[in-house]
Amino acid sequence: MTIGEPTESHEPGWAGHGPEAAAVPGEFAELLPGTRRALLHRLAVGQAEGRAPSLMGAVVRGRRTVWTAGRGSVEGEAPHGEAPHGEVQYRIGSLTKTFVAVLVMRLRDEGLLRLEDPVGRHLDGTPVPDATIAQLLAHSSGLTAEARGPWWERTAGALRPEPADLFGERPQRLPAGRRHHYSNPGYALLGALVERLRGGTPWGEVLRHEVLEPLGMGRTTLGPERPYASGWAVHPWADAVLPEPAEDTGLMGPAGQLWSTAEDLCRWAAFLLRGDERVLGAASLAEMRRPAVPPEGNAWDAGYGLGLQLVRREGRLLAGHVGSMPGFLAALWTDPEEDVAGIVLANCTSGPAVAALAAELAGIVSELEPRIPEPWRPMPGPLDPELLALTGPWYWGANPHLLRLRAGGGLELTPLSGTGRLSRFRAEEDGTWTGLDGYYAGETLRVVREQDGSVSHLDLATFVFTRGPYEPSEAVPGGVDPQGWRV
Length: 487
Prior knowledge:
The protein is 23% helix and 21% strand. Strands 1-3-2-12-11-10-9-8 form an 8-stranded antiparallel sheet, with helices on both faces. By secondary structure, it is α+β, with helices and mostly antiparallel strands. The protein is globular. The chain has helices at residues 33-50, 96-109, 133-137, 184-197, 203-215, 253-256, 262-274, 282-289, 354-368, 385-390; strands at residues 7-9, 54-61, 64-72, 90-91, 232-234, 241-243, 259-260, 302-304, 309-313, 316-325, 328-335, 340-346, 392-396, 399-405, 411-415, 423-427, 433-435, 444-449, 455-460, 463-465. The longest helix has 18 residues, at 33-50. A hairpin with a 5-residue loop joins β16 (423-427) and β17.
């Protein structure tokens, strides 16, 4: 291969780590030639039109990297330099925030904090002690957008050696909890929170030990390690480049310090899609994907969860993040419904639309090769006959619903008339079920029995479900006309 030529790989490389990295079905092993060419064409157009010194793209599907390709030169200067490939590091900017958010969620799952806790309960000297940890994660604490002093991304972190140096005289610009206001210093506080609750261990070391090593992400680091791309600014009116500084941002590191590679970010995307119990379970990741602040604007096509950006594109809900630092752009989007993710890395300050490009890479695969469902299999036994007897049609008044038994003893309530509220329920030790989503999230479903043990009705947050439509029963609030149905 000649140095500087574009590269493409479609070999199904990393297949994951740990208990969830089962063998991938054959239909996921390799993309079709037409799909690979469509991906390469889109990447090439993005690099040429965006005038990026180099552009690296990747797609993950079914827990593995199914496509990577690079265009241009990581050195950025004419005539030739090293061609981008999956092990070249790029600075990923605010994608760092997704890693910090996972560290915070781990602390929550361990019981060391609650998302509703005011950050001042765990961290002294913060400018917003009453803002909650969830508000910091979702950028709704009202904190200022940027750190005090000169442009923090292009200056040494040594200029801000103490937490107080990050904030000016008016650190809080909006009331906490009212609206989304992106705050880089807010994530500096979350990094300090991680260090405080991990006994003073620097957040980068905590990240390496608790997240990067279990996921096999050995090329994700706080500083660049060769081979890495040089960062460039591209002149807006001429095909000329200017080197950008790559500073250690110090206390602002949790907002955008990390360097990573396409291969490592494929591992990260696979984790964000499916979870890994050694790091964070799928349920907590799903919680991070839910909107945590009200969407802004009439279109409502974008939002923010707990450390994850959310966007809607062509009917698909994507979760991930974009990042930028002087000389670098990055984007990673996951589509949990299709089990696919797109990743783009560039070594320029501006130019290529990496967020749109990463979404389009994932979309090309979803459109040309729709996800093939996993085979249906019976749930693992033993089967509880009492639970099975609860399944089937139930009626809220005259509105029919269907109750299904799912794996693990969970229940799913589905309206059959086109109107109603779908929810899933988790079994509890006391024989009740707790709503997981929809209108009944957090509400309790109870089976009410007669004295002889037979089932009378279901009570769901005071809504009564009977086996027949307005079945004559004392359980129906307000009673039922004694003459019954009539014609």
